[in-house]
């Protein structure tokens, strides 16, 4: 990790496109900071440019303006105290040439009736050291010209992925319209049909710099400049060069030089075409500027935090002043002062980088996704002003995630103060495949936009602390309560790729969406919560959704039934991609036409297939002796055929290496970083290396090597490694049983798990790892976090016949007296039990926890004395194994004398633990071995209540058939019926009532079942209870009665139901 004290240059970007450009110009990229200020929510990239250590930060996704920039700068200075100079680098809108340099705030002023708007503030000049360097580089460029274009092309040479978005657009797209010409909403090209609407400009001469560098005044404000008449007025009055939205928030509290690449002309004809290139030019200039400043000259500068200490003391006042002008932006709410308690609560919800996960998906091509956008279901959903739900299903590769990113990005560009948008992209890895993480991410976005809504989360946070991250029901309750209370605001919540979420959580989310959709909206006018969910049209998901779609057919867009329309859109993109191909591959007109027609005639066309096919054509042209013949005959007809061709192109001498790479990526529990891959692949390809220094590969340029070796099959994003698409993983795994198996590049998922287990085991036992904390090669320990956290899972998934060497390695890691254990165990425990203190347990407890039956067998040997000894939390080995679902380990422990009814720990006994977690096979094993089905104790009271609390209806039925007492009292909820009613499981509640549950039984936190259902807003269950004779006025519990429970959470539908059934308002 990097020490924040070593960084002297602060660099701030407003947009991701600027952040990417800045990162690409780093000569070295460093590890993330070792620590930041507790209240610092910025994302940082650290590295070196020339001699200087630079810290780069970007504004939060979707936020713009002076206030947000000031907030990011303040956080940066609080974490990086030694920053001496600052840069604000990015894009802006152009005006006319100017002469005076600096920044002025054009929307900070006063409006006087019948007079023009009067600007009131010119802001501080950039520091002298930066102005001097600017003068020097200006002289250098005038004498010798600049090399900015060459520097940018050098970036593309190292990272071809960026070329399309960041290269210089065609000159014909650089249009300056007369100020009175207003943008045509359909297409900007239509604005230019009449040449008289354009300002005629002469081309730059050969002896002029291109791009040209201008020096002058920048106008900064919270309102996006899109009015050419006001632009020209300010340009004439103030000699303004450029308009932007952040610099005014920095100049008086973060003295810096503002560098802007011009991407449009500050008029209504805005477009994104020039943004990437403009960001690259600005970053290239900034790097040139830094290289002119000697290191010792920067170190001699006073720290910015000292220079502006007085300004920093009053920064909240300035932020409030700026936010008062910008009611249209999210930043207004974020500027409100948060207490330390609120900040700590807010930070609990940030688990993953959801913006990065969104941006992995490509941008939507113009004219596509109309199959969704133009459907009556989507239009109805988008325009509705009440609680609503839309499910979009489509086949793989049809652009669902692109559609979702487009909705989010389009909203961010045209944000409305009364609309909030929050999102999460599910992925089939341990970081993105669960509902709790998704809800935390959604809430973090919501609270970023509306901090005052934290009041609805703080009580649950005070009760649960960081454990709140795991409490799906509580997180859902917070989301519903907070969005319902956000008066006159529409909240849009999007979940993409539900099919990649774990199946248990798929069902849970759909159940919650069903209950939400059936709950009549009781919100005030303009206040609503709308969900959009995308997935593949899998049968089990359709079955879960069927209850809703049968009753409300308008909530489902069936993309899989819109293949003709999707194909028409893909045809549009085919023509675009072939035209782009012609720019890089010298194709004749005839061949251009033949390729286009061949692609258009393919039956199974998807966006993913097209992406792969175009890359295949480009590669074929480069490598074929007769490309004009091969291009047509060998175009892959399907996605899988394209995958096969990519991998079959791998040279024979590289095949084993590529196979190891693919096995590592597929088996990894999350996307690996470049440095982690360097170590993992190094170990996989060096069987005898005893140290990390000998085994590890150099991570520099490894990303480009991976692309060269694996083709389009693998890509990197933000230094993490991914397969091109989820279908690539499915293609490889399906090869297990394929008759067309090519064992050269893939064997089986079991082999992949075997390899990852061996890599992790060897790494953790390497001789130099334990002594290497201060090693000069920091990537030596780069694989420690991953291997320590995940080696037990990889070992558990190994083939049943592990070698003696691997058994020995596992046994060494369980040696609690050895140094490897002291390294891996704290990291592992923090990963699997992040909200629990580290337990003091024996190797047997830990092996049972991990489900390593071979190690359990080895530890026990002929000695059974430890099998019935609890750890420091009172939990026995058989309880740990039951809790985590390790059935073979449970059987082994029972065979070795484990007490099936041993009491201890938070779950009480093994049966309760298995029932709470839904492990029905283990519950059956325990019952057959004599587990007491009615044993009492701890949180759930008994096994039946544990199953009912967590919604495991199959287990509840098993327990009832085995003699569980349906009215047994105990636990938090008092009895099983209250547990089911509180959690909203109506099927289980009905089952319990049919088995004789007492509908009016008293006890537990809610007093009775009706109050339990009413307190959580479950109107269907409340109605069922009332129809079966529940006492509407029964007293007891935390709320006193059901009516007060419903009223306290503002469940108006239930309140009305209770009153109609005779609830006494005076009790």
UniProtKB/TrEMBL annotation:
Name the Gene Ontology biological process terms: nucleoside metabolic process
Q: Where are the ANK repeats?
A: 873-905, 909-938, 939-971, 975-1004, 1008-1037
Q: Tell me one GO molecular function of this protein.
A: catalytic activity
Q: Which UniProt keywords apply?
A: ANK repeat, Repeat
- Does Zinc-finger count among this protein's keywords? no
All residue ranges annotated as the NACHT domain in the record: 388-537
The answer to keyword Repeat applying to this record is yes
Which InterPro entries does the record associate with it?
Ankyrin_rpt, Ankyrin_rpt-contain_sf, DUF7069, GPIID_WHD, NACHT_NTPase, NLR-like, NPHP3-like_N, Nucleoside_phosphorylase_sf
Q: What is this protein called?
A: NACHT nucleoside triphosphatase
